[in-house]
Specification:
By secondary structure, this protein is α+β, with helices and mostly antiparallel strands. The protein has 2 domains: 61 residues, Translation initiation factor 3 (IF-3), N-terminal domain (Ubiquitin-like (UB roll), Roll); 97 residues, 2-Layer Sandwich (Translation Initiation Factor IF3), CATH 3.30.110. The strands form 2 sheets. Strands 5, 6, 7, 8 and 9 form a 5-stranded mixed sheet that branches. The chain starts with 5 loop residues before the first strand and ends with a helix. The C terminus is likely disordered.
Length: 173
Amino acid sequence: MIRAPRVRVVFPEGGAEVMNVHDAVQKAREYGLDLIEISPDADPPVCKILDVGKYKYELEKKMKEAKKHQKVIEVKEIRLRPKTGDHDYQTKLKHMIEFLQRNDKLKVSIFFKGREIAHAELGMDMVNRIREDLTDYAIMENEPRIESKYINLFFSPIGSKNKKSNNPGEENG
């Protein structure tokens, strides 16, 4: 609903003219099209003479195109135990690096079973090892926290994919 007494009307063939609302509606009827308010905050408000269906279709098309170019950041999770073996650790480290190189965020959870939580220092050793191994690939978002039977770490990628040539299996032997 147009509330202003005068509006700037943009015509289908181009060009624009300031006129009162009644004349603008008459002009739109002459073209057999609709008068659509495009910019209500302008002074005077801007209206366009065009087909509503076509206008909605164009807006949808623009929205879909914008969605295509959006980068969805996923959070990938890797779960480890404080007693994870070296080979298993290297495999998981390789996956962590792959996730970070794809610009995904990474959540590393170190899970304690049963009474293992009494030896939280083993978990913190694992945290320090992970932190050290991912230094070239990620930034730790927050300090590790022990929550129930987990130690959770969050990493963000450094933002470059130029580290792909490094082989994580060779870093620690």
